Here is the input.
Amino acid sequence: MRDYSLTGPENAAARAKGLASAEWYRCAIPRKRMKELMQRRDGPAIRDTITWFAAIIGSGALLYLAWGTWWAVPAFLLYSVIYAGPSDSRWHECGHGTAFKTRWMNDVLYQIASFMVVREPTSWRWSHARHHTDTIIVGRDPEIAATRPPSFLTLALNALHIKNTIAELRRVVLHSLGRMTEAEKDYIPESEYPKVFRAARAWLAVYLAVIAACFAMGSVMPLFFIGLPSLFGAWLHLFFGLTQHAGLAEDTLDHRLNSRTVYMNPVFRFMYWNMNYHIEHHMFPMVPYHALPALHEAIKADTPPPYPSCWAAYREIIPTLLRQAKDPTYFVRRPLPGAQLEPSTSFAAAPAA
Amino acid sequence: MSNAGWIETCRADEIDEEDVLRFDHGSLTLAIYRSADGKYYATDGLCTHEQVHLADGLVMGDIIECPMHNGRFDYRTGEAKGAPVCVNLKTYPVKVEGGRVLVQIG
Here is the structure.
């Protein structure tokens, strides 16, 4: 099995092969159209955020009313999936700074969603920047969810966010003591360390407050509103997230070969904030989520055929992961179209004499 | 004014207001900006965080945002405006003569 850590030999090997911080293939789009697609708006994200928090409050009210009865079980599962499922995509889009036009709105929702999805805000911002620089480059990308061979135990544990949460809580404690891991030192500049330490201490304070509330109330109920939902609702963002890259090529410089675009229904697209257009997102990460369907239309002639449904994606992913358990060299080869769109996203001319 | 060290780049009207254009000169890549009030500026063309062409990014007011990681710079001064960019951009003097944008690189 290859060493997927950032501190192993694959890191230097990727750099030696020119795979680190490399130039990636980009579909051609006229500059004017790209500028239109990159335009920020506040309206869609405000609408979606109000809808999301209304759903959290509504399902939380159901849980509160059902507490002490068996109805609390489905109410908790509903609350958890509404709480944790979309928190991943909100963390993600606000981390890119594209969800809202107004910067502080991105920052506020980023901090809240980071806590809800249990990802330390500063560490994961840098981790995700690296994921975009070196997408599925072994030894460089810290966010490869399905290794070759895949670890089914890890995937199963992460359906309840268990392995991730344990790792994250360890890091929170470490960071609150003013220390960083060796892997983090590979992608987080030292000037950012104080932010990491501050956030870790704030998180610890919230966790301690929830535990104190449990003791004060003589009930575990507070943990079922803050804390446990991050675990019990995580299966939804794992379900969405595995469609992104699992089973596809490693160490390629073409997002069309290592990412999937999957058509999803409107409810899933709301929960996932259109990240099902994942080739498009990776190729042009500054296009806001609400413009990804239009970007998809603009470049789809130059991308592999999209998967028509989650079902279609998983019909490929599950057999591929099972096969990779026996043959780690196997991966899905996506077909590239021959057609090219009209050229030029940037201007380059010979200098004047 | 002497033209020593100045190079002719693009036509002034090739850049829309509040937009940016890439210009390559040998191994040097520049980003040339036109602000909303019609002034021209030039910086190094590659982001100081990763080697990404800023000319593929978005100009918003006085800010150029890197198309890859949301790194933001004030293109008038080159100042990095926060993570993930920590190092300022190099800026270059610019003038417009005869409808052409000239940049002093030497």
